[in-house]
Write a structure and sequence with these properties.
By secondary structure, this protein is α+β, with helices and mostly antiparallel strands. It is built from six helices and five strands, in the order H-E-H-E-H-H-E-H-E-H-E. It binds flavin mononucleotide.
Length: 168
């Protein structure tokens, strides 16, 4: 696909099903992500691919984060939220671990480099025919979720990227 076509035809896939990207396709997608522009060549991004076990733990932590934001959530809504995340075909969390010793490159520039990586990921997955949904929500700002992913509370989650076969 032409790059301009990929950019213009990209859209969020609000409903995904299996299969997610093959290992070879995922490697290609992550390689594209890692070619994002990056001030100072700090590579401040992390791409955390959630395997099945990690996805279950992440889904529980994400549902808990949402309940903090929406305390009126019923147990049924909590279970539905958890299930929705857990059944996503493939999740890649794009995080920014800010190099605070690098005073020449301000934090915001490191965060936007990670966001550029997330967009590269999106376009590369779209180019290979996969559906993508870029999410953040309460989970992206929750210390419990970050801990589950092995991130520091000061790290930034710039995208919770759901990838799979597009239904909608
Ligand atoms: C940083 C970022 C965070 C987002 N977070 C969410 C989210 O939490 N939930 C959601 O449904 N969509 C989320 N989106 C997707 C946007 O809602 C979507 O891109 C927008 O509606 C435009 O639709 P399109 O991608 O089809 O052009 C996010 C997009 C970005 C760039």
């Amino acid at each position: 696909m032409e790059l301009s076509t990929a950019i213009k035809t990209r859209s969020s896939a609000s409903k995904l099903t299996t299969p997610g990207p093959t290992p070879a396709d995922l490697a290609q997608i992550l390689d594209a992500a890692a070619h994002a522009p990056d001030h100072g060549r700090l590579k401040p991004w992390q791409f955390i691919v959630l395997d099945a076990a990690m996805r279950e733990r992440f889904a529980l932590a994400a549902a808990a984060a949402k309940r903090v934001r929406v305390p009126t959530m019923t147990d049924e809504q909590f279970a539905a939220e958890r299930e929705k995340v857990a059944r996503s075909p493939t999740i890649v969390v794009v995080a920014c671990t800010v190099r605070r010793d690098q005073t020449k490159v301000p934090e915001i520039e490191q965060v936007i480099a990670a966001a550029a990586a997330a967009e590269n990921l999106f376009l590369a997955a779209h180019d290979l025919g996969y559906g993508v949904m870029w999410k953040t929500g309460a989970a992206a700002y929750d210390a419990g979720v970050k801990a589950e992913l092995g991130l520091d509370p000061n790290d930034h989650i710039v995208g919770i990227m759901h990838l799979g076969t597009r239904l909608k």
